[in-house]
Every structure is written in C-alpha cells, then in structure tokens.
Amino acid sequence: MDADLAALATAHGVATWYEDWHRERKDVAAESVVGVLKLLGVDASTPEAIAGELEAVRERERLGRMPGTVVVRAGESRELPATATIVLEDGTEREGDEIPADLPLGWHKLHTADQEITLIVVPAELPEPPQTWGWMLQLYALHSERSWGMGDLGDLREFIGASGGPGLVLLNPLHAITPTLPVPASPYSPSSRRFANPLYLRISDTDEYRRADPPLRATVDALKPPPTADGLIDYSAVWQAKRAALELLWPLAGEVDLESDPGLTDYARFCALAERHGANWQEWPAELRRPDSPAVREFTSDRVAFHAWLQRLMNAQLEEANEAARAGGMPVGVVHDLAVGIDPAGADGWLLQDVLAAGVHAGAPPDAFNQLGQDWGLAAWRPDQLIATGYAAYRDMLRRIFRHAGGLRVDHVAGLWRLWWVPPGMGPAEGTYVHYDPDAMLGILALEAQRAGAVVIGEDLGTVLPEMTEGLEQRNMLGSAVLYFTRDWDDPDDVFYPPAEYKRNALASISTHDLPTARGFLTGEQVRVRAELGQLAGPVEQEQRNAERDREALLTALRAEGLITKESTDDEIIVAMHEFLARTPCRFVTASLYDVLGELAQPNLPGTMNEYPNWRMPLSANLEDIAKDPRMHAVAAILGARTQRKAHR
C-alpha cells in the first residue's frame, strides 16, 4: 500500500492489515481503506487529497490541541500543556497545569484558553462480582396462559419467582423496534438501543387496564391473538393486537409529560413520524430527515405522547421485574444484553446520525465459520465524533439501560476496541477494522455500571486479541466461557479443558443462542439442519464425523470427572454438563431452558435469514409447566449448591 495512504489510515485508526482466523497477516486493499476513510470524512481519493489530509493531521499535531474528550482513571494525574480550569460535576472548580489525581469519578469540564473539553474520570476497576448462578433466557420464547403470543415482562417476573432461586437472569436484548409493520424478528438489529420494545408489555399489568371498567377490559382481552398455525411467533400479529389494546386504554392514561425527558420525546416523535411516513427515515420527505429541522421541531401529534406513554409503561414493568429480583434476594438480578449496533434506518440512525458513520455496515471478516465474511447491516459509531461530542450519546445509551439492569452483557465486546466496517458497495470481506479508544469505551462503561451498582459481562468469543480479554479482567468485567469452545485447540484431539482450568472472571454456559442446544450437540442436529438448508462448508459425511468427534471428546471430559458412565442417557449427560460447569471457578455459571428442557432447535442459525425460523420459536413447554419441571429444579439445585459451597469456603 502507498506509504502516505497507510500513514493517513493509521492517523485515523483505520487498519491496513490484520490477523485472520489462521493468525496470519491479511493485507487490506487500498480501495477498502479509501472507502472507510471517506466514511470518516477523510478524502483519500487522489494522491493530492491524501497529501492535503496528511498536512492537516500534522498541523493539528503542531498546534498541540487537545482532543475533545480526555479520559483518566481514578487516582491518575496528567500534565496539561497550559494552565486550565476544571469544572466538576458539582460545579466546584480546580485550576492548575495538571489533572490532579484526587478528582472524583464523573463527567467534568476542562477549560483551556481556547477549548472546552469533556474530562471523564473513570474507575480503575469495578467491584468484584459475586459468585452466583443464573438462567439465560430468550424472553420472547417464554409463554404462559396470560401472555399474548410471546413472552413478556409479566412472564419474566413470574419466572424469577419460580426458577429455583437464581442470582441472575440474563435476557436477550429488549431494545426498541420501529412501531410499523412488518416487525423484524431479530433482537440484534434494533431501531434504538436507548429505549425498550413495547411488544414485551403485559397489557393486563398496566394501571390503565386495572382502572378500566369490565366491558373495556373484556374488549381488550378479546384482542389476544390466537395461536399461529405453524406454532411460531408472529411479531407483527402480536404488535397489532397489543397496539390495538393500548389504543383502547390510551384515553385512561392522563396527561403525558413531554418536557422532562427530551430524549424520550425525540424518540416518540420518530415513532409518530414513522407511522406516517414509513419505517426508513432515509426515505422520508427531505425536510424530515434531520431531527433538528424546523419541520420536525414543529411536528405535533397525539401519537408522540402515545409512544412516550408506551416507554413509561415499559419502565414501570421493567422496574417491577427488578423488584421481583430484589425480593427474591438475587445478588445480581436482571442482566440485559446490549446489541453491537442498530438498524441504520431506525430511530437511533435518525436521532444520532451526527455520531454515526453514514452508509457503513458493521460486520466481521472471513473466519472458519463464515468464509465470505459477515455484513450485519448495522450502523457504527464514528470514533472521531464520539470524541468531539464527549461520548454523550454513548453515555446516554448506557444510562438508560442501567436504570433497569443489575448487569449488562455486551455483545461482541471486541467492538469496544475495533469494529469491522464494510464500505458502501463492497462485500463483507472487503472491509477493514476501525479502532476506538478502549480506555474511553470501557472506562465509560465501568463508570456508568458502577454508578448503577451493576456488573458487566463481555461476549469475548471467537477471534479476540489478548489485550481485549486482559482489558476486561483488569476492570473486573467478566468474559465468556462456553463449554463447547473451552478446549485445547493446540492438542490434535481438541480436548476439553477440565473445570479447574476455566478462568475465574467469566460467565460460564453450555451454549449460546447462536450455537446448538445441549441435545442438539449430542445428536448432531446442527449438521442435519445445515445440510438440509445447504449451509455446510464441506461434505455432510465429514461434518457428521466432526460432530461425532466433538461429542466423544465431551463425553471423555465428563467421564474424567466421574459424571457419567458409558450407559448414561442423553438426559443424564445434559445434567452432567451442568454439573461439569458447576465445578469451574467461574464467578457466574448459567443454564439455558433450551438445554435443561432438551430442546433440539437452537434459537438462531447464523448465516440464515428466512431459511430458518430465527428468533421465532417458542419453548415447547409453557411457563406453568416449566415451573413444575423436575429437570429445571434438578439443575437449579446443582448450581445453587455450587454457590453455597463457594460461600462457605
């Protein structure tokens, strides 16, 4: 690659090469680097443009200007280029030529002669998470006699009270949708990560329903959607039914405050505009495509208040779930899941467009499982704009989630260090990594988590650099330890590590939503399904042999622990898999209802869209039966006994 282009890319945090899944150097094409730089507002289209951009970089360095945001850890001091005034969160001031080591945690302002800079003091580490166990729950898949076509927050509250005394419940993302039809199924492509999905409301638990007279309640109850013919979740039908019910109850809501939370009002305004002009704001009339335009600011509709009300209902029911967790003595409580990005056509794509890279699709480079790379179609933060704006949008997102969370799982946590950007018009393999400031991204995450009294779990599976795992560990954030992957890959037989060799700062689980269930793993279900859908990379016979080899390696590990015999049934093996994890030193050990109940189908099959019913399969048993299922209580007893043993040591 041209030396000047490479230098310009490095100056803006754009990778010109990376290590692939073989740990071999992979050079990035110049066209990809030029395309990504353009997304950052940097013109690298000609040698002359590159030279001009490089000169601008050097000029900034000569001027010695500070970045728009400075992040320091608690107890750390830093020299300043000149005397400055620090205005703390509480309004008090400090003056000097350094950032002193005794500044309190928080969001402060640093004033120099010609700059106002956001100064963020973050914790060096979070408090140690407790030793406990819990459930991983795809909430939409839970269902009861009272829920409407999918699991809801009422089901969550009831599950917490009937699930054997866990210390935490980890949910799928509950991020907001755009309230139009059709409703997308994936919880990982949300309209907004700052607000919540009203499909999870339990209508009968709202104050308005309770206040309604019997005829109105009967009319609302009659809207409950019937079971679908194929047994799958129909999100659009659920939304149509709940929306109709909420509109009937809306006159009982009273006045809705649209002044105290401008961010909520802006989101509600997006929802009202989307109902009128369609789900994709990029196709709205030109005068509505910016949230600060006169046409948008002058837009009024009763629907703005309606959608703000829905979020207030969500906040109330999320808090009721937290109250159930506290009443049950759960040391962590409800743990939410943060998707790696958002749908660029949705609410956050519109509201936060000034800090997002217009046109980029976040994804992943080619690897052993996705040899063409992945394009997730998600928008990505612009690191330069985050710095310039004091990370305000990132902070706001975290604060809103932590309001109702005892913990947060960060999907693809490596994205806090670097994210694979695919420029417009290019394939997923033609992207490159863009780097973020991990001291800021993790530091702010730690600051907001500590203020909320919450734990943080990073999904650090796959190709993750050592500094990423170490960065989590240094801050007392947990990584992930999945049984299927916790193996010695340098051994010719890929042997499973014994429980004692698992890392302590981790959340341990048998599987994830993207992997085979326990029974699926034992029966080779993933091979059968992928073969049926034409998703296998090699011959089906080879994949079957690989699956059988993996099964035998797992059984060998379980036998080595004395947990099974050659005569053990699959049900007994699944219990033994949980006992195996119970013997690890991991701070959190979690079980999934998919595994405990012996489900065959995994919730999501990566690489598929409509070929597989991703995110649309309810659990085979309803909540009432799950609460009485001896398999669930057996696993809860195993994991609960582990926690008690650790507590008494």
Automatic annotation (TrEMBL):
The gene is malQ. One of its GO terms (molecular function) is 4-alpha-glucanotransferase activity. InterPro entries: GH, Glyco_hydro_77. Its EC number is 2.4.1.25. It comes from Paractinoplanes pyxinae. Keywords: Carbohydrate metabolism, Glycosyltransferase, Transferase. The keyword Glycosyltransferase applies. Transmembrane segments: none annotated. This is 4-alpha-glucanotransferase. The keyword Secreted does not apply. PANTHER family: 4-ALPHA-GLUCANOTRANSFERASE DPE1, CHLOROPLASTIC/AMYLOPLASTIC, 4-ALPHA-GLUCANOTRANSFERASE DPE1, CHLOROPLASTIC_AMYLOPLASTIC. It holds the Pfam family Glyco_hydro_77. Belongs to the disproportionating enzyme family. It catalyses: Transfers a segment of a (1->4)-alpha-D-glucan to a new position in an acceptor, which may be glucose or a (1->4)-alpha-D-glucan.
